[in-house]
Specification:
2 domains, seven-stranded mixed sheet, 10 helices
Length: 363
């Protein structure tokens, strides 16, 4: 599965919604890609995206796009309910596929798609973009070099005001994610799961994950029927490592935090206001370590405040990791190497997702 020595890939995008801007930005600037087509059911949206990002053509029928353009890589950015059908056709047409999460509604569907990808000698890669945000990569390095010791607890928390207006709260034009088994939270759940699993010790991340305990409280604290759930509080224990996954739309301010605790230290970040705060034993008397950690945390927060302020001015978003993910993915395609998100990454994410959904009777 490689790029056969090609220096550029003909790339196409199906779905011109909000997330497409990030994909199209990469494709229009990358030296590895030639943006050949944008496809969307809306003719005006497809044409607008194609014109804005200098795509060669705009389509409303992805089958016609595959036939006319024969893209090497297709980015599928449509609602999850459509993924199985569109991914199947793209793989069968000979295209590698990069697909937004969740790659499939169920683990069974994913296995079917993966088997087809192997048969067609094509790559199937799910977007795990937040894994490649700089704060996450920094914590991952602390874990890998043993700074935090043996990992004992991982906490991933997203607070997002999805009820406060906007695309998820429109009763007259419900967002497609409301049709997912767990509603809107289901759309965000893969992010929470793959980030939690990223810090699970390697000896526990075997082909089939083993859960000693799974408990998930799914709630709807609202007074309408639009949302299936608007709150999730879950705990998963595997081999003595506790994973805590939380989604909350009622608290403020919005945050997307990750905390990793080991038997030597802990590290935490917030992807919406990027910074990394680490507490570990420091050189000198043991009693001074907390003071040194506080000093370093204060310094980091000051630097982060200035950096984030400039980021706002430059319109940097939490999608910074998506550009890294896509860059590494296309490099892997060129080199015939394993992509940055592997079969096991995708399969484990779906396995944990289904374990949590089963607690709500949604599997």
């Amino acid at each position: 599965m490689n790029g056969s020595g090609r220096t550029k890939f003909k790339a196409a995008v199906i779905g011109a919604g909000k997330i497409s801007e990030e994909h199209l930005k990469f494709l229009s600037l990358s030296p590895c890609t030639e943006l050949t087509a944008v496809c969307d059911l809306s003719p005006s949206l497809a044409k607008y995206a194609a014109d804005q990002f200098q795509a060669a053509e705009a389509f409303t029928d992805y089958s016609a796009m595959l036939s006319d353009c024969s893209p090497d890589v297709v980015h599928i950015l449509t609602p999850p309910q459509t993924h199985w059908r569109i991914v199947t056709e793209c793989l069968s047409a000979g295209s590698h596929v990069i697909v937004e999460k969740p790659v499939a509604i169920s683990r069974r569907e994913f296995h079917e798609l993966w088997a087809l990808a192997q048969k067609c000698d094509r790559q199937l890669i799910e977007d795990h973009n937040y894994r490649f945000n700089q704060p996450v990569l920094e914590i991952e390095q602390l874990v890998n070099d043993g700074t935090l010791g043996n990992i004992r607890e991982v906490d991933v928390r997203m607070t997002l005001n999805i009820r406060g207006g906007g695309r998820y709260a429109d009763v007259n034009l419900p967002h497609p994610s409301h049709q997912l088994p767990a509603g809107v939270i289901h759309e965000f759940l893969p992010h929470l799961c793959y980030l939690a699993l990223r810090f699970l010790p390697e000896d526990l991340a075997t082909e089939e994950l083993q859960f000693d305990h799974v408990a998930a409280a799914w709630s709807n604290h609202g007074d309408d029927e639009l949302f299936t759930f608007d709150d999730l509080d879950a705990t998963v224990i595997s081999g003595g490592v506790h994973l805590h996954i939380r989604f909350d739309c009622w608290s403020q301010p919005d945050c997307f935090s990750i905390t990793v605790r080991g038997d030597r230290g802990s590290s935490q970040c917030d992807l919406f206001q990027p910074s990394v705060i680490t507490a570990i034993p420091r050189k000198g008397p043991e009693q001074l370590s907390p003071i040194i950690n506080q000093h370093k945390a204060g310094s980091e927060l000051k630097v982060a405040a200035r950096r984030n302020f400039m980021g706002k001015i430059r319109q940097r978003t939490p999608y910074e990791g998506l550009q890294v993910f896509l860059d590494r993915t296309y490099f892997a395609l060129q080199e015939g190497a394993d992509p940055p998100v592997t079969y096991r990454d995708m399969d484990h994410t779906l396995q944990l997702t289904e374990a949590l959904l089963s607690e709500a009777g949604k599997v």
